[in-house]
TrEMBL record:
This protein's record includes keyword S-adenosyl-L-methionine: no
Keywords: Membrane, Transmembrane, Transmembrane helix
InterPro entries in the record: DUF1206 (IPR009597)
Protein name: Membrane protein
Pfam families reported for this sequence: DUF1206
Ranges annotated as spanning the membrane: 27-49, 61-84, 115-133, 154-176, 248-266
Length: 273
């Protein structure tokens, strides 16, 4: 009975056009955040300070006129997208597409992915709300502190190593999805087109490489007991700047994140829901 009620509530919610539009706005918000991250990376090229991650993007937005209001609206859109992912975890992916069958290992993977994305979007929404209210904290500081605490115990080191592997796998999946153009399956338009396909390839590939780098750095932080290397996305981006041809790599990363941000706007319009 409870299961039927849950399915009924999820189906009724996804049948609401206003709810769908609110969820789609979450993609646009993600696009803005990625464009701001690209802007911060460009700053790093010129030796300026900045945190190249979502907390840095939110801090940048919060410092603008009307930034707090924008971040509250962003939090609302991200919560709507998280709730849509919850509905997908219950009903299966793309619940607005009638007659679609949901079974097998692929469906199970999609439901797990939707649940994980729901948690991720809630976390970003909470961070946006904290920055809107003036209480936001740098992700770099939080990640470094958490890594330092986990390094103090054997089981904590195990968790960090597992997390590193998971992050590397997520990054690898992004690269695969970009290079194989598998992201086109998420869109209502067929064939991508001369603009959408290059944006998706560049965006997914660049984000995947940086995510993979963050996972590798987390594993290095665990092995070397250096929590500063486990600082997440920002540490991965800045490690590119320290490599040979670092400025060129940072420019490429900025272009990739900008492409992913632009692709998020494509998703806000053409994503299969």
């Amino acid at each position: 009975m409870a299961d039927n009620a849950m399915h009924g509530a999820a189906r009724a919610a996804t049948g609401s056009r206003p709810f769908e539009l609110a969820a789609r706005s979450g993609y646009a918000i993600s696009g803005v955040l990625h464009l701001v991250i690209a802007y911060i990376i460009v700053h790093l090229v010129f030796g300026l300070a900045g945190n190249a991650d979502q907390s840095g993007a939110m801090a940048t937005l919060a410092a603008q006129p009307g930034g707090a209001v924008a971040l509250w609206l962003a939090a609302g859109g991200l919560v709507a997208l998280a709730l849509w992912r919850v509905a997908e975890a219950i009903l299966g992916s793309h619940p607005t597409e009638p007659g679609r069958e949901h079974d097998g290992a692929s469906d199970a993977f999609d439901r797990i992915k939707s649940a994980a994305l729901a948690v991720l979007y809630v976390g970003i929404a909470l961070a946006a709300a904290r920055f809107a209210s003036g209480g936001g904290r740098s992700s770099r500081e939080q990640n470094t502190g958490m890594t330092a605490r986990l390094l103090q115990t054997g089981w904590g080191k195990g968790i960090l190593l597992i997390a590193g592997v998971v992050i590397i796998c997520i990054g690898g999946y992004h690269v695969y999805k970009g290079l194989s153009t598998k992201f086109e399956e998420d869109l209502t338009v067929t064939g991508g087109g001369p603009l959408i396909t290059p944006l998706g390839i560049a965006g997914y590939t660049a984000k995947g490489v940086v995510l993979g780098g963050a996972g590798v750095l987390l594993m290095i932080a665990t092995v070397t007991a250096d929590p500063a290397k486990g600082a997440g996305l920002d540490a991965a981006v800045k490690s590119l700047g320290q490599a040979p041809f670092g400025k060129a790599l940072l420019i490429a990363a900025a272009a990739g994140f900008a492409a992913y941000g632009a692709y998020c706007f494509v998703m806000s319009r053409f994503a299969r829901m």
